[in-house]
Amino acid sequence: MRLLNAETKELVQFLPNKIPPYAILSHTWSSDPDEEVLFSDIGKEKAKQKPAYKQKITPACKKALKRGFDYVWIDTCCIDKSSSAELQEAVNSMFNWYSQSSICFVYLEDVPSKTDEATDSEIEDDFITKSRWFTRGWTLQELIAPGNLIFYSKYWDKLGTRELLASSISKKTKIGKEILTAGRAEAIRFDLSFRSVANRMSWVSFRETTRPEDIAYCLLGIFDVNMPLLYGEGATKAFRRLQEEILKNSDDQSLLAWTASRSDKERTEKFRGPLAEHPIEFRDAGRIAPLPGVPDTYLLTSSGLRIDLLVVPPNCLPFQDGFWGVLRCHYTGDFTGPLAIPLEPQPWQGNKVYARRKANLITIDRSKLTNHDIFQNGPFASQKKAHPQNQTIIIQRNPKRLIDDCEHLHLESWPNDCTLIQAIPEEQWDSRTRIMGSDDYNVTRVFIFEHVSSKTRFAVVFGYSFRFPQPTLGNVKVFKLDPGMLSSPPWLQDGKPEPWMDWEWEVEHFWDPDDTVHWYDSKGVKQGIGAALRKGHIMGVPFFVINVESIKGSALKLREDLSDSSG
Predict the structure, then answer these.
(1) Based on the domain organization, do 561 and 416 belong to the same domain?
(2) 470 within some domain
(3) Which residues form the DUF8212 domain (predicted)?
């Protein structure tokens, strides 16, 4: 470690076990780096000609000598930044250097004085925290790490200690007063270890750095991790690498409790990977605290993050869409339930693969869950498939969005007592795979069936819009064919879109949409037919999937009653 001799202004290098007591300076760099006294300037006459020599170097050395310290550390001149190896070692050691200092002088060059010369009145503490120093990324660890820290104005008037200004600093930075008033470096480290990862991330969410990658590198000491510096990789990659290092050393699941930024939500991509892209995505995480429990294991692979999570399906949470992964963390003071992240199954990648949706976090309200056993420590009282279960899942690293607009149609199944007579358009129908391909999802597709015993014929008609103003999932309807229409009627010409342009005329001549298609079996039991439509996939390709279903007895009566009641 190099230290600046406060008397001679010369640099002296010390081995780790020989470092003497020293003062340390925290400041913001000038917008013009040439104004700063650099490593290459020390010992040369030009160092004394630079503005920072009189403004920062000399006063800091005088303050150190006055307090009995022969050495001072200043980042501008004590690091040879021309050496990438030395710069990397310095960045990884920075938190420790501030923590091991005997005293830290914080120089606020944009705060004129403790006393306003114009009014001869004292400046309020909130005015001090408006300094640019409180907006920079690197100064976060410089604020937290030292055991003894004093703020000085532009003219080196004492503004106060960190303890004295703790209330206004906490209000500005959202850092707990317990940390700001801990007093000793060891106590500060101890308090930091009890803060959730998300909470610590929130402290830097609105800070800035000159070089994009530094928004991640400036947090190494806050999370007690080390990693190589790769300037040029960009802020997103650097921040992801930081999170990966945190995953190796922490079982705190609040690292996953981020919320997509507004700019990210405006992007066309629907899904995200498991990790945040920038600290700003933890902007609302200041109140998140970890929950006690048996530490879970993580495994970050090329596919994604393998993690044990309680996965809650949509039917268990009223008024919430999609699946939710329950984390072992919650909002401080809120004991309604734990936080959960929005997940989306990726079935074409495997039964246990999920992507992260861009929706906000939610608090799981245990009182509204359909299964109240899932938060018990013992085994589930019921293992029904629909109930939330602890699962080992993979949250994909780089999820690929499945194309929303399906083009092909798969007739998955139909009743054994019905025979498929015709599929239209015929040239696009593959009877072996029961797939009807198409280059245009808006083309109407029709399947004509005949009930074996009653000889009743009906058409299952798929149309993408069915006169809706905007495209929807699609629609499938079942119509009883007029006895006279045994062959393909004119409106079922191959590939003709929207056959019901004149809806009223078509209904009058070919079908009655309110008339349930039904027949009676040998026992006199009334039977009917229905069709269900969903989106699915075959070998990773999106499909519309139709299942034609038999409806019997009371179920048919209930369906007719519901149809009547809906008008």
Answers:
(1) yes
(2) yes
(3) 237-270
Q: Give me the number of domains the chain comprises.
A: 3
Please tell me whether residues 153 and 271 are part of one structural domain: no
| Pair 14, 157 in one domain | yes
My answer on whether 117 and 259 are in the same domain is no
Residues 263 and 342 in one domain: yes
| Domain final residue pick, 396, 425, 440 | 396
Tokens of residue 498, six digits: 């929207």
Are both 122 and 261 inside the same structural domain? no
* Residue-range definition of the domain harbouring residue 135: 2-194
Look at residue 63 and tell me if it is in a domain: yes
The answer to whether residue 207 is domain-embedded is no
List the one residue out of 141, 137, 146, 257 whose CA is nearest residue 196: 257
Distance from C-alpha of 451 to C-alpha of 518, rounded to nearest angstrom? 10
Residue 114 contacts residue 165 (beta carbons within 8 Å): no
Whether residue 265 is found in the same domain as residue 170 = no
Q: Is residue 190 part of a domain?
A: yes
First-to-last C-alpha distance (Å) of the chain? 83
Which alpha helices (DSSP H) does 325-460 contain, by range? none
Reading the chain (567 residues) residue by residue, the pLDDT tens digits are 999 999 999 999 999 899 999 999 999 998 888 899 999 999 898 889 999 999 999 999 999 999 999 999 999 999 999 999 999 999 999 999 999 999 999 999 999 876 555 544 566 777 899 999 999 999 999 999 999 999 999 999 999 999 999 999 999 999 999 999 988 889 999 999 889 999 999 999 999 999 999 999 999 999 999 999 999 999 999 999 999 999 998 889 999 999 998 777 777 778 899 999 999 999 999 999 988 766 667 888 888 999 988 888 887 776 778 899 999 899 998 888 889 999 998 877 777 899 999 999 999 876 665 544 444 433 333 334 445 667 788 888 878 655 556 778 899 999 998 999 989 888 889 998 899 887 666 677 889 998 888 888 888 888 754 444 443 445 778 878 766 554 545 444 444 444 433 333 333 333 344 445 666 656 666 678 888 888 877 776 778 889 988 877 655 555 555 455 544
The verdict on 336 and 475 lying in the same domain is no
pTM: 0.73
Q: DSSP labels for 410-442? A: EEEE--TTEEEEEEESGGGEETTTTEE--S-TT
